[in-house]
Amino acid sequence: MSDTADGMDPAVKQTSAELATGVDTDTILKTEGITKRFGGLTAIDDVDFDVEAGELRCLIGPNGAGKSTLLNLITGALSPSEGEVYFRGHDITEMDPHERIRRGLSIKFQVPSVYEDLTVRENVRLPIQRLASGAERDERMADALAAAGLSAKADVAASALSHGEQQQLEIGMAASLDPDLLLLDEPVAGLSVDERAEIAERITQLNEERSIAFVVIEHDTDFVAEIADHVTVLHQGETFREGSIEEIETDPEVQRIYLGGETDA
User: Fold this and answer.
1) Where is the ABC transporter domain (predicted)?
2) How many CB atoms neighbour CB 3 within 10 A?
3) How many domains does one find in the chain?
4) Is 117 contained in some domain?
5) Is residue 265 part of a domain?
6) CA separation for the pair 80, 78 (Å, rounded)
7) Can you give the pTM of this predicted structure?
8) Which domain, by its residues, includes 218?
9) pLDDT in tens, 235-258
10) Tens digits of per-residue pLDDT, 45-56?
11) Which residues of 166-177 are buried (b: 16+ CB within 10 A; e: fewer)?
12) Residue 64 backbone zone (phi > 0: left; psi -120 to 50: alpha; other: beta)
């Protein structure tokens, strides 16, 4: 009998996606040589980027570093000029964004896109009603409201929420899809100190209690220090540094690149 003890035929060759992000690895997301050109501008240049299951990763860098471009390549909003994107054992490079969401990847953009004419509860119901009905739907809605920290405001119109509360609502809505990985694009931009602390609590609770992995784009290094397990610094479309927030904050080269600024790609 040629099969191994775990039932796998040793002659069966694993795909690159399975080797990079499959069941035999802790990595759930990986880009290999990902590159994006806009005419003569190379916004992302041969970037290898990976995220482990349950990790809380922050992606930082000066304006023009290519952070948003990399996020859009991961979500499928942009197609790469070169390279691959692997997620949970699959090559998703050519997949549509909705298919990536179905496979467990979710995103919340910088500007909230809640329906202001609906209540908080009605907003939460929108993504959930595609997944469940009846008692299961109601339970998921209650969980999403709690994840957003807005259970007490369930019947308030979304238009009456503060900007920070709308950010919380969108995070709760994204988390209601039960993603393995949630991407956040500058979730605390323009928020007060108290609102930033509330968002940090939402993210860390979802990470710890639901084992959702996060990639968070953020400029606020104080906020990054509150939440990050690991930090990646992009500069001019390339991976510049990776490490703990302590290592990144004390790196003289990171300090140097933050003295300048360009238009974000």
Assistant:
1) 29-261
2) 11
3) 1
4) yes
5) no
6) 7
7) 0.86
8) 16-93+104-257
9) 999 999 999 999 998 999 998 887
10) 999 999 999 999
11) bbbbbbbbbbbb
12) left
User: What is the spatial order of strands in the sheet that 41-52 belongs to?
Assistant: 41-52, 27-38, 82-87, 90-91
Residue 262 contacts by C-beta under 8 Å, 6 or more apart in sequence?
A: 62, 63, 64
Number of residues assigned to the chain: 265
CATH number for the domain spanning 62: value is 3.40.50.300
Do residues 46 and 35 touch, judged by C-beta distance below 8 A? yes
Stretch (H or E) spanning 141: helix 134-148
Q: For residues 82 and 254, what is the distance between their CA atoms, to the nearest angstrom?
A: 27
Long-range contacts of 169-172 (CB under 8 A, 24+ apart): 169/112, 169/114, 169/120, 169/123, 169/124, 170/108, 170/112, 170/113, 170/114, 171/108, 171/147, 171/199, 171/202, 171/203, 171/206, 172/124, 172/144, 172/145, 172/146, 172/147, 172/148, 172/202
- List the Cα angle 88/89/92 in 5-degree steps: 80
Residue at 113 is within a domain: yes
Q: Please state, in angstroms and rounded to a whole number, the distance separating the CA atoms of residues 12 and 23.
A: 15
- Please check whether residue 57 is in contact with residue 224, taking contact to mean a CB–CB distance below 8 angstroms: no
Task: Compute CA distances 225 → 52, 67, 228, whole Å.
Answer: 19, 18, 6
